[in-house]
Amino acid sequence: WGPVSYMVAIVVRRQAGSKRMPEWEEHAATACAVQNMHLQASAQVGLACYWSSWHALARDSEEMRTFLGMEEEDRCLGYFMVAACDPELKDSRRRNAETHLNVEWRE
């Protein structure tokens, strides 16, 4: 754990009402939102980030639930860590923009 600029809590807030989505769908939607944050951050030179599930005892504690203002059915899935990094460091996650656009259409 190095110094981080931000720790963003990743919390699933359960939908209210009688027509609720299944819990797994809310978890999946939250994961997609975190992926969007990660994609946006990866476009910024000198910015590093990752999703950490952190320590279960701290993440799931009643104190953390109170601190985050969580309701009974809400779940904290972890924290999105954001930090400044040396822009000269090699980023092994980078790829040429066109490599993910290779599509083979079949009939």
Give the N-to-C terminal Cα separation.
49 Å
Given helix and strand content, the structural type is alpha+beta
Number of helices: 3
Q: Could you say which overall geometry the principal axes of the C-alpha atoms support?
A: flat
Largest beta sheet: what is the strand line-up? Answer: 1-3-2
List unreliable stretches of 5+ residues.
Answer: none
Helix content: 25-40%
Mean pLDDT: 83
Largest sheet: 3 strands, antiparallel
Radius of gyration of CA atoms, rounded to a whole number: 18 Å
- Number of strand elements: 3
Notes on the protein architecture:
The chain has about 110 residues and is α+β, with helices and mostly antiparallel strands. Helix content is about 30%, strand content about 20%. Strands 1-3-2 form a three-stranded antiparallel beta sheet, covered by helices on one side. The model has no long low-confidence stretch (mean pLDDT about 85).
